[in-house]
Amino acid sequence: MKKEDKALIIDMIGKTLAEYSCVYLTQTAGLNAEKTSALRRACFKDEIKMLCVKNTLLKKALEASEIDYSELYDLLHGETTLLLSNTGNAPAKLIKKFRDKNSTLPILKGAYVEETVYVGEENLETLANIKSKSELIGDVITLLQSPAKNVISALKSGGNTIHGVLETLSKR
């Protein structure tokens, strides 16, 4: 491959990395064509970008990035498949779901999620249980709405009298 072609590929990988906040490094070697196609379809359905890249080109793209991916460099050996997403737990959930149906692959090498690096297969469960940003915002909104709903329901149930309001609040 010519040096100019490599530079174009590194630039393309770098631009793709910049579009996503979560980077998963996996090993999919050993999947046959049918299972690889099924994994690609599952990634597309869950809005996860799947890229098979050469480790040397990926390392150069990671080094050129504004984000510090240095802890992932040691994981760039053997065959590497990137799973990119803007939802932190989506690739981990996909890996778990795909394994249940098909095989022990893909194997998680490591991940960069929300400025934190996770190295090794043992972190898959942790990554799958991480709440996404939108889930956390929903939880906060629910917690903020709960006291207001209690006061409103107390006011409605007791009628307009102070006695009814106090009685309803004392029961809760």
Tell me briefly what this model is.
This protein is of the alpha+beta class and 172 residues long.
Write up this protein:
The chain is an alpha+beta fold. The protein folds into two domains: 3-130, Ribosomal protein L10, N-terminal RNA-binding domain (Alpha-Beta Plaits, 2-Layer Sandwich); 134-171. 53% of the residues lie in helices and 16% in strands. It contains seven helices and five strands; from the N terminus they run αβαβαβαββααα. Strands 2-3-1-4-5 form a five-stranded antiparallel sheet. It is elongated, with a radius of gyration of 24 Å. It starts with a helix and ends with a helix.
CATH architecture of the largest domain: 2-Layer Sandwich
Structural class based on helices, strands and sheet pairing: alpha+beta
List the total number of helices: 7
Main sheet properties? 5 strands, antiparallel
What is the CATH first-level class name of the largest domain? Alpha Beta
- Please state the average pLDDT score: 88
User: Taking Cα atoms only, what radius of gyration do you get, to the nearest Å?
Assistant: 24 Å
Q: Which helices and strands occur, and which strands form pairs?
A:
Layout: H1 3-18, E1 22-27, H2 33-45, E2 49-53, H3 55-64, E3 80-85, H4 90-101, E4 107-113, E5 116-119, H5 124-129, H6 133-157, H7 162-171
Antiparallel strand pairs: 1-3, 1-4, 2-3, 4-5
